Amino acid sequence: MFTTNEVLPEDLIIQILLWLPVVSLLRFKCVCKSWCALINGQNFINKHLLHNQTTSNKNRNAGFLLIQRQKSSNDHVFSKLQYESLEILSTQAVPSPYFGIPKHIQINIVSSINGLVCLNLNAGNTDIVLWNPATNETKVLPKSGISYPQGRTLTRDVGFGFDFKTNDYKVVKLLEIFDPDSEYCINDINYFYAAEVYCLSTGSWRTVSTSAPGYFMDSGCYRTYTKGMFSWSASIRDDLDFFPGILSFDMSNEVFLTTTLPDGDLEDPNGTWRIFFVLKELVSLVTFGKDRERLENCFYIWSLLEYGVKESWIKLFTIGPLMGIEKPLGFWKNESLFLRNNEGQLLLYDPSAQKITNLQVDGRPMQMITYVESLISLKRGNDLEEQGNS
């Protein structure tokens, strides 16, 4: 037994602390100056993140971040769900400085990487916010300040990802810019497409050297991120025609790739919806169309093996028909699918048992993403070290 005079070796202290959740580590920073320096150190932050991402610990420390509107007030709130049990661990309001924002403002989760969450707030001029829910640290990105001679610049959407080459976090912004000299017209107005990138390490915006292809963002701006590639659901221009597909941005090489959607199951005379998620670290497509007579949905799930190659889409399985389902929200283990029904309830569908479970979440779910807690700070731009990808 240790006495009050005995001191544990530093290596053993580190190993013990690595097993603790972020909330405990933040508390233990007050124990002494040496512990505060240790927990704030980039080396320990990296080790803690990697420890949480090991195969044995990943599901224990991972979970989901769910944005929803409360039934009583209609306010936006964020709930954390534990991965294995799907138990709600906590619910919190929109992060500061956005408490009490108007209810009509739309809040979108762009993506979550290594505990950092990117939010896109459509509040007049779009605000982009980086947020660490575990430490409650936020960073409102500055406006780019980059001017274009043509003027009339419109932000179409944003993406958030990790650059494995530079070990940096990046936000990419898709722009549509009026150009009177463009050869292509949309409703007799000429546009060209550009992109800007914000790097957390530098805290500034710059233009992307490679040009963005012509596209129309699909209604709903469905997005997903995996392994250094951020993708949007879009209609891609090929000569004078547009084809449904995905527009992808390589965070390391800063180039765009386009992939046409697969043939089959995508055309429905009653209308087809397409949403992208990540399943087994692959961009996966969920298409679903409603039979208006029976009010039933069938879901078709595809995965993309190689960006830019239409033939690499593989069809995995079909779910349904299901009644009263509004849209899917994402995947859980064993290819189970989170769903939102027409009453705004969060459901879980198990395809092997063909069973639907109501998760009894008090609120109307809007978006759901995988999430892992981390100590990564948004204030340390220039000393980012290797942190991997959740």
For this structure, the quaternary state is single chain
How many strand units? 26
Note the gap between the termini: 39 Å
Strand content: over 45%
The best one-word shape is globular
Major pleated sheet: 5 strands, antiparallel
Helix fraction by DSSP (H/I, runs of at least 4): 10-25%
Give me the Rg, rounded. 22 Å
Tally of individual helices: 5
The whole-number mean of residue pLDDT values reads 81
**Contiguous uncertain segments of 5+ residues:** 1-5, 381-390
Strand-pairing-aware structural class: mainly beta
Name the descriptors.
5 helices; mainly beta; F-box domain-containing protein; SCF_F-box_component; 390 residues; disordered C terminus; 5-stranded antiparallel beta sheet; 26 strands
Folded structure, characterized:
- The structure is a single chain.
- By secondary structure, this protein is mainly β.
- It has a domain at 9-60.
- It has helices spanning 10-18, 22-28, 33-40, 42-53, 55-61, and strands spanning 62-69, 76-82, 88-93, 106-113, 116-122, 127-132, 137-140, 153-163, 168-178, 185-186, 189-199, 204-207, 215-217, 223-226, 229-238, 241-250, 255-260, 272-279, 282-291, 296-304, 313-323, 325-331, 337-341, 346-350, 355-358, 364-372.
- The radius of gyration is 22 Å and the shape is globular.
- Strands 8, 9, 10, 11 and 12 form a five-stranded antiparallel β-sheet that branches. Strands 13, 14, 15, 16 and 17 form a five-stranded antiparallel β-sheet that branches.
- A hairpin with a 4-residue loop joins strand 16 and strand 17.
- Residues 1-5 and 381-390 have low confidence and may be disordered.
- The chain contains five helices and 26 strands.
